[in-house]
Amino acid sequence: MTKEKSLKITYSLAELPSSQHRAGLVGLILLAKDIENSSTGRIKILDLDDDGVEIEFDEKGLEDLLNEVYAATEELEERTKKIPKAKLVKTETRIEIDPKTKKEKKTTVYFYNNIVPRGEYLDRFDRSPDKIWMKLWRNMLWQIMRGVPATRKPFEERAKGNGSKDVGVIWDQLSKKLDTSVKLPSTYFLGAQETNAEGVPFKDLARFQFLLHFWPFVAQVYIPVRVDKDGKRAFDGYCIAIPDVAALETFCSDYPRILEDRSNEPSGYRPKDSLIDIPEEAGLDIFRRLTESVRAAEGRLETSDLVFGVDIYHARKDGNNVRILYCNRIEPLSSRDREYEKIRSQLKDHLFRHQRLMNLVKGNDWYEGFDRLLCTIPPAHAFFSPFFSRDARVCFEIQVNRGEKEMRTTETESEALAVFEEAIILKIIDEYLREKLRDKYNLTWKKIEEIKSNEKLYSLRKKEYGDRKDALVKEAFYAIRSRTGEDFINYFASTICSVPHWLSEGDYMKLTKALYQDTDRIRTLSMLALSTKGTRAEYKEKKDNE
Questions:
Q1: pTM, whole model, 2 decimals?
Q2: Strand, coil or helix: 235
């Protein structure tokens, strides 16, 4: 009896052409280690370090590997509508109560056979009660990677217990010269196509293309969220984030911990941690999770030593077509990644957080772009939304606290001005509103607190104070929003600065200089400062009446 032929293949991270190939190498190693003891053939990691790996397997071992990748089950799926051209298994009539009319109504449910990818390696790390992480991964696989039903054949054959021809084809390719050129379809490589605009076909080396079967086990899946001006939320396809691995053995060691540490908190039927505001956040979140993994092991590498970056693909299925809407690459940067952790944990409003993240990724100051945002969203959202107002206050407080620390080492006038502009604007807006309430309506918070023992009068005066303050906030907000350049300077000087402000002469000089030299900045900060001052009475009343 002759010994079955084995293949030994050596891979180096440096020779692989893309992040998808390098992530695929990680996936191959993880699955090979996972099944090498239970395989009916031979699968063996012979040599592994941070630079590369040597792996050995025979045809039976290859079959076990591919069976792990394409394992699937056939399950009944119920639908409320018929699926055109799909084979109907059975129908069922149900009697339900209409939530509007409270009357009984008959509903017909249609059942179809559905192929469900198993992804056993990933499934073991999903400890959420409803397997929400696995559902997300399977949905992405079926809608993006295998969005065309004809590409699901490897899963379908295994779900039905039939032998798959892919094992023999791949074995023949790898058994020949390893540098044999083969076609590179988009089924395996995101962004590929049969030929480019010049008619040149996409091709790859056989031993490299082999790795592309495994990268979906390493890529992380996110859901971009869009919120319209009315605050309605909608999911917009999938973001697939592929880590570009720099240290092979170390990353393979860390990856299971990254999966285990994911939060299982749901948001609807999706994992909360999978919802992102901008595509680049997928990369930032991977850096965050890698950083947490690095912190868990003392004396370990930095995040930038584990990955060169993260490639991000935003894809969506439109009808029968899968479209790549956006692709980008983001690289680790410790200062930016630390700031992202704060934004992620502290900011709650989608529109506010979206703009902050855009500024973070572009390297802009935190307030940039908010002038355009505040000129397009409903004004009530700016100062009566409980989350937008809160987020604006949080950002001002962060800047003020940071400024106080930096001032101890700040020596030049320009640095001092940059440090204190936010604090000065916030203080001036606050004093303008307080003085206007006192002079125009004889309302002060101190006087209201003095009548707290009279519950009815206290409630009436408190409401009056809030209503008057909200009216002043609106008036100033509209006035600033409609003015730019010199018109804004004149309004700020004649109206906002018309009441006494308890500022030092130095602070007045700093403010005056900034008002003329950096007008747009002061205008943006003024609108943001006003957004922190709404009492949200109108918002609460609106919600109560809904």
A1: 0.87
A2: strand
